Each structure stands twice: as structure tokens, then as C-alpha cells.
Amino acid sequence: MKEEGPVRRRQSPLAVKLIAAFAVLAALYWGRTLVVPVLIGVLVSYALNPIVEVFTRWRVPRTLASMLVVFGVLGAAGALVYQLSDEAAAAVRQVPAASKRLRTVLEQGSGPKPSVVQELQTAADSIAKAAEGDTGRRRAGEPLPVAIVEPAIDVKEYLRMGWWGLLGFAGQVLLVVFLAFFMLSSGDLYRRKLVRLAGGRLADRRITVEILDEVGTQISSFLMHQLITGTIVGTTTWLVFWWLGVEYAGLWGLVAGIMNSIPYFGPTVVAIAALGVSFVQFGSLWQAGLVAGSSLVITTVEGMIITPLLVSRLAQMNPVAVFLGLLFWGWLWGVVGMLLAVPLLMVMKSVADRVEDLKPLSELLGE
User: Fold this and answer.
1) What distance in Å separates the CA atoms of residue 142 and residue 154, rounded to the nearest whole number?
2) Backbone angles phi, psi at 147, to 5 degrees
3) Which of 329, 351, 361 is nearest to 342 (CA)?
């Protein structure tokens, strides 16, 4: 009789998809130092492309127009950083004094009861006295007690790590700048290449063109909206905090404008931070609540109501998908991931709408 060979089982498509998904997640996480700057550079090129198009309509060569736009943005960002550098340095210098003020306010608010710090100090003194008594009663020939002393902080090592971190950040900024410049100066070169790579069929090329058009329109509109609303929120926060007497109001305005790009979470973080810092500065819970409340009034109207609704209409995504996307990309890449979450979700939605295998993802993200 003919022996039958081993039965070959067909591999489950679901298992293959799960393995591929985990592989993609691992690549995105471990390659974040390269992937994140590349994504930021692409988004910056989408945001600046309309300005470059205006210059090209004025007969300015595209390479020169791209250079002017990129250097103009760098100059504006450098001027803003220079204006706020003194406030940032002063805020860093005030951290030790602020911690002392916070401890004083907490001790005063506790009344005649000893604070936790005082109780810990009393307990430490008692232990030290007990140890001294045991030492005095130590008999001859007994070994001396050994005290384990923690090594001093290696300041040079921390400085070296700080410099390496600064150099790494500078390298990522250069990567973003050069990538944005090359993409702007190349025009629709990569668009034509992607269309060719889509395949020989006319339907495949048409779908690719539709995806690229929709992604470009949505990303440009979204980033322009974020720039305008972030400027409004930052300027308003600066003026209101300055009127209320909050220290470093300009720095607060910059932080509020940037964090406004993160729906739901950004305005909440700014309000909580303003509450804590204002309580340390004024020593009054009422004044701290007034500052935090003003921050919520500014950001809630724009950052928690208008922006999510506008983003949902622009990309036709439901608010739950936006919220879960913020959680996912924030878990994967931190704060930068939360800043990139909405544009990435918009790209995923545009692709999923036109690819048959990704219809379940389109259904989950859609309204």
C-alpha cells in the first residue's frame, strides 16, 4: 500500500495578519527615531506646499521657492524661541524655589498638625539616637556596624547624556528640514512614481490618484486649521495669563498653542498644570482655580468642541475612533505620537475607504 505523507494544513489568514500586525508595531516602535522625523517631514511638506505653489505661480523657480519657504519658517520659529528663551531659562531657575514655596504652602495649610516632612524628620532623628545608644553599649570585640552609603550622583555622566540627547534632537530636526525641502522642491515627482507603482491597470492607478488627492487635501486643510487655532489659543492664553499676573505668560501661551493640537488631552493637561503652578505662585486656591478656569474656557470651546467636530467632518471619522487613536499613538510614541495621531488616522481612513481588504478598518473609523 502507498503510504500517505504528512497532512499539510493550510495556514490561517487570520494568524498571518496578526503576525504581520505585531511585526509592523515592533518596527514602528523600535524604528521611531527614524519613522517619526520622516512622518513629520512629510506632514510639513504637505502644510507648506500651498505656499510654494503660490510662489511658483509668480514664476519663481520651485527650488528657490521651497528654499524661501523653509528658511522663512525656520526664521520665524527661531525668532519665537529666542523671544521666549529668557522666560524658559528663568522658569527652570525657579524650580527649586517653587518647590520650597509649595512645601511652605502645604505646611501652612496643615495648621498646628506636623507635616509629613516633619514626621519623617522626627522618625529619622529617633532612629539616629537609637543607633548611637546601641553603639555606646557595644561590647569589646564586636564588629563595627557597616553603613551602606549611596554613591554620589555622577554629574558628568548626566551632562554627557544630556549632550547626546541634544545632538540626537538636532539631528532629527535636520532630517525633518531636509526631507521637507526635498519633497517641496521635487513637486509631484513621487506622486507620479506612486501612480506608476500602483500597477498597469487603469482602475488601480485611478484609486491611487484619488487616495493621494484626498490625503493631500485633508492633511493640508487640517494642518492649516491647527496652525490658525493654535495661534489663536496661544495668543489668547498669553494675554489672559498676563492680565491675571501669571509668571511667564508668553511661555504658557506657546505651550497652550502646541498642546491644543492634541484633542481632549492637550487642554486638560494645560489646565491641570496651570492650576498647580498658579497655586504655588499665589498660594491661594481661589486664584489658582481662576487661572485654570480661564485656561479651560479658552481651550474647551476650541480644543474640545470645535476641533474634534471639524476633524470628524473633515475625515468623516467618529469621535470614539479619534479618542482611541490618540491613546494608541500616544502609547506607541508618547506626546509626539498624540500630535501625529489625527493626521495618521486621516491617512488610514482615506486608504481604507478604497482598498477592499481594509473595509473593516474603514467601518471602524467611519461615522
Assistant:
1) 35
2) -105, 130
3) 329
Instruction: Tell whether pTM > 0.85.
Output: no
- Alpha helices of the chain — where are they, by DSSP H? 13-30, 32-57, 62-93, 95-109, 116-136, 155-186, 189-197, 202-244, 249-259, 265-282, 285-299, 307-315, 319-333, 335-354, 359-365
Cell triple for 248: 511667564
First to last CA, the chain: 62
Question: What burial class does residue 261 get, using C-beta atoms within 10 Å of its C-beta: 0-12 exposed, 13-18 middle, 19+ buried?
Answer: buried
Alpha carbon of residue 64 to chain centroid: 32
Per domain, the residue ranges of the chain are 30-108+166-187, 219-367
pLDDT in tens, 135-148: 454 455 555 555 55
Cell of 363: 467601518
Q: Is 317 helix (H, G, I), strand (E, B) or coil?
A: strand
State mean pLDDT over 299-303: 72
Q: What is the CA radius of gyration of the chain?
A: 29
- Given a contact cutoff of 8 angstroms between Cβ atoms, the answer to whether 361 and 341 are in contact is no
Q: For residues 261 and 339, is the Cβ–Cβ distance under 8 A?
A: yes
Query: What backbone phi and psi angles, to 5 degrees, belong to 215?
Result: -60, -45
- Asked if residues 43 and 223 have their Cβ atoms less than 8 Å apart, the reply is yes
Give ∠ CA 247-248-251 in degrees, rounded to 5: 150
